[in-house]
Specification:
Radius of gyration: 17 Å
CATH topology: TIM Barrel
Number of strands: 8
CATH architecture: Alpha-Beta Barrel
Strand content: 5-15%
Largest sheet: 8 strands, parallel
Structural class: alpha/beta
Number of helices: 9
Helix content: 40-55%
CATH class: Alpha Beta
Strand order of the largest sheet: 1-2-3-4-5-6-7-8
Order of helices and strands: EHEHEHEHEHEHEHEHH
Length: about 250
Amino acid sequence: MIDTHCHLDAAEFAADRGAVHAAALVAGVSRIIVPGVAVDGFDRLKNTVSSLSGCRAAYGIHPLYVPQAGADDLAIVRDWLVREQPLAVGEIGLDFYVDRNDPVRQTLFFVEQLKLAREFDLPVILHVRRSIDAVLKELRRIRVRGGIAHAFNGSRQQADEFIKLGFKLGFGGAATYAGSTRIRQLAATLPDEAIVLETDAPDIPPAWLNRGRNAPAELPRIAAEIAGLRGVSLAALVAQTSANARAVFGDF
């Protein structure tokens, strides 16, 4: 099983990161992709994935970290892509949910990181909260190798546009809430080759955690919920979503 989006380097795991990783392995989560969010965390991210089996990094500047990004941060991202040869550029994108986050500056950083992904022929891990159409606009302008639209919560029409551009759509804890009708409908009906699994741990906890800290070991139960929505076996869903993740990132 592949967790395509887990912030295992986050401070929330500082006290028990090794145990959290071990629990994920026991649960059957053999691969974890850990996306970066800010350049000042890249060293910690590298140390995390280097010390834990089955973990791989992506490097990028998250839109919510753009306000504190410096003038040289894009050059730093480029240096890390050259040196580390990661699986992807990410987590990048746009977030129009937080009003104070300047959309013009966000877009500048997003566009420049898309250009880096194109230069290095890497997929991208996208953050698309309240910004799907704006993200799609830039993806049509600056074509990249594809990637994942993480924590997807758009319409079916928007989902189809991502799929046309070579993207998979990430589903995790939000799909476990009965009230998340649109997400659950998408998780149930999108083409087999379009979806991947994720936790976004420590964030987006599934319903049974009652807003507690999420962890990659929750992925099998999340997967079982999505398998039920799709009317397939857990084994079939895991095989398909793992194949989909490898279609994006290659064998890792």
